[in-house]
Amino acid sequence: MTQFYGPSRKRYIRQQKQTHGRHPFGVFPAHYPREILWAMNVLPVEIWDPPLEVSHANAHLQPYICSVVKLGLELILQGQCDDLDGFLFPHTCDSIQNLASIVYDYLDIKKPCYFFYHPKAPYRSSSRQYYLEQLQTLASRLEKQLGPLDLSELKQRVQQGERLAYVLRELYTLRARGELCASNTEFYRVIRQGEYLHPDDFLPILEGFLADRKGQADRLCPIILSGILPNPQEILHLLDNLEARVAEDDLLNCSRRLLQPPVAREDPFEALAENYFAMPPCTTKDSPLMERVGFLLQKAAHTDARGVIFCMVKFCEPEFFDLPQMVEELKEKGLASLVVDSELNQGLSGQLATRVEAFLEMIR
Amino acid sequence: MTFFKELRFNFMKDLGGPALMSISRKGRKRRHRAPNPHFGPALKSATRLKEIMTRHYFLSRYTEGAKPVAWVTSGAPVELLRAFDFYTIYPENHGALCGAKKLGPELCAVAEEHGYHRDLCSYARIDLGHYFSGKSPAGRLPKPDLLFASNNICQTVVYWYRALAHYWDIPLILFDTPYNFEEINDSDVSYMVQQFEEMIPVLEQVSGQPFKYRNFQEVVRIARDTSLAWGEVLATMKARPAPMSIFDAFVHLAPIVSLRGLPVALEYYQTLLKELKERVDRGTGALKDERKRLMWDNIAIWYKVRDLADLFAEQGMNFVTATYTNAWTETIRYLDDQRPMESMARVYSLVILNNNLNHRLKLMERLINEFEVDGLVIHSARSCKPYSVGQYDMKRLLMERLGVLSVIIEADITDFRVYSEEQTRTRLEAFFEAIDA
Ligand code: SF4
Ligand code: SF4
After folding, report:
1. ipTM exceeds 0.85, yes or no
2. Which CATH number fits domain A9-147: 3.40.50.11890, 2.60.40.1910, 3.30.70.890, 1.10.3720.10?
3. CA of B113, closest CA in chain A: separation in Å?
């Protein structure tokens, strides 16, 4: 069903430049106000797990750094970002923070770099005010490169972001109920296109996918995926083959960034701030542990999930710190879990595949 | 707080503690290592330092029920807590102590048994290992009433303290310091000042004491003078020969980390400074023959401080400056008791680990010039990503800009299971040859 897939990233970026005069920006994980970028005719292209072999990045980063950071740097060093007009680095973790500084301060990349600091939880009234100011500061910095921000355009983009989130939530809800006829592989392939497609193009794809795949799905063993992103992708194939359905996820690049139903706000910046603080709990925002546990349990309850698979990226401190308590709390509530710890793009080893199989057998 | 427990605490502080410690000192058999012939005379102040730190940990056993106890991260603005009379414990300092006593792997292993991954910061694993096992070379650490963290050194401390807050079910206060990618602005400062204001009611509640602004200003004054004194201590190493080494400074920084804002720390550094100035006047060096002067980057390799000190001393190489020890004095010039909140926001958010890598490079260039450094030893610490990520480029850039030779040691701050003696030796031998060429 190829109509649900847009062109490859490279082709798409060039097309966007040529046909819409858009400015493609490389955006590192994870939380950032994409609506401001859209409103300024910027195409955010997120950099999570480009399919590359790491070689050049090893001269800059120690072996104990996660592969999201390594692959991102590799992409830059291999000259694969030449079509981009800038970079945005949200303050996600210590490793991304220092990567941002390496790129900006030490590598003479000759491209504008922007930074975005989101306040860390527990949230107080100062956090809200600061977040709002950060949005405005980012916008005014971008204006210097891209010209003035049109507030009515921003309003429209905020609404478009909310519409996008609505369709995504619909897809998630249907999947949770077993009413979406899509394999795990296909589901994530479709929704992850949001990492680089412009909403004008992504929204129709999502809507088409929703209309086409709505319907009673096969009754497969429901599970939840937690962690950073669904990689190695082979895990999704394996779950498909083993007749397990990812009924929900708590992945940083997917549902942890999914907007909740919006609260009406006249001012678009305020709307963005409201939406941000209503998002699900996340390690990279320092959310309290019990909020994360509660969030997962809620997902397990409404999907009847039998277990949680934690897809961990090696050397990812934010995720590994919460893991022991998450596993323990889930166990106490009768929910089994499995930890899959791997480098990105390295495939699924036979040993890991066996562990996934054994886990599914146990929870069925 | 109960009256009896307060009485007991005060008794131990003034009378019982000193007496017990003196008895235990007399009873303890000292292990004597043969003196290294390459070192100059030892620092006399070291005895006083040991007393101060032993007393600090010893007294902490009597705090429960007598004083509010807070566990604090090394870069947190402790001045605010001092104004509420919190007894403060620094798990990172405790981690360093465990590292120096070679207990890192044992305590880390306890945390690992509870699911904490071996790749996580070993200070955190030691501390969690202590939480699960109660083991500590300091006897016993008091259970905190409050956790106080700032992410100006890393995000790791927040994940770690969040775990402790969950296990103990106690409040965690976070001082969130926006990372200085380019330059901190008014919005960043006012965000931090607002956070201080939001903390006060929580601190009042936990400590049971009202906020006394004048006390707070006094603490700020003492903290500033102490950090300035620490800066003067470090500056004595500009002399040739340097009267102490960075390996000494790693030990002598305990009060500036753990007791900042208390008169005892200020008095201590005044004493140490006096001794160091006398040594400079007499030409007494940390080494008998200081041939080369080096800089250290990153936290110490705690289980190897002594061995490395011996090894470098044999080569006539003295470490005269370090980015790490400098961290507790670098930004202190911003501290102003007339505008304590705002100035504290700058002091704490501009520290080395919350500042961009360009800033760090410039700082290193300055230190290399001021301290007349011949070479640089870079500890790539597996535990510490904010300190380590970027070091490979720094090495290259310092060579290009200043022609400074450097070597990278891949190691860890406390977990010696990831340390390779052979690889380190090989690298250092090549470095020694190059620097002498
Ligand atoms: S995988 Fe973890 S450590 Fe790596 S960039 Fe993402 S959050 Fe940071
Ligand atoms: S060693 Fe590094 S990561 Fe660990 S607590 Fe200290 S600053 Fe944070």
Report:
1. yes
2. 3.40.50.11890
3. 10
